[in-house]
């Protein structure tokens, strides 16, 4: 599963960064960016985002 961040919804709350076991998420210009080479697609970050900014890429 590929996971993507909607930058329009991301508020830079850091919750996803704290929870990601792969350290795959960084903040770039205040928005979460997922390094797809590190992400294993477990989706832990999806419910962790208080703004619903992280979704599976369908
Ligand atoms: S899906 Fe899992 S590995 Fe990928 S960015 Fe989210 S928490 Fe990290």
Report on the architecture of this protein.
- With 58 residues, the protein is an alpha+beta fold.
- The chain has one domain: Alpha-Beta Plaits (2-Layer Sandwich).
- The protein has two helices and four strands, in the order βαββαβ.
- The chain is globular, with a radius of gyration of 10 Å.
- The mean pLDDT is 97.
- Bound molecules: iron/sulfur cluster.
- The site of iron/sulfur cluster has 13 residues, from loops.
Question: Biggest β-sheet, characterized?
Answer: 2 strands, antiparallel
Mean pLDDT: 97
Per CATH, the architecture is 2-Layer Sandwich
**CATH fold label:** Alpha-Beta Plaits
Number of helices: 2
- Which blocks of ≥5 consecutive residues have pLDDT under 50? none
Q: Please report which band the strand proportion falls in: under 5%, 5-15%, 15-25%, 25-35%, 35-45% or over 45%.
A: 15-25%
Order of helices and strands: EHEEHE
- Termini Cα gap: 9 Å
Percent of residues in helices = 10-25%
Beta-strand segment tally = 4
Widest sheet, order of strands: 1-4
CATH class: Alpha Beta
> What sort of overall outline do the alpha carbons produce when their principal axes are compared?
globular
| Count of discrete structural domains | 1
What's the topology here?
Layout: E1 3-5, H1 15-19, E2 25-28, E3 31-34, H2 45-48, E4 54-56
Antiparallel strand pairs: 1-4, 2-3
The protein binds iron/sulfur cluster (SF4).
Iron/sulfur cluster is lined by residues 3, 20, 22, 24-25, 34, 39-45.
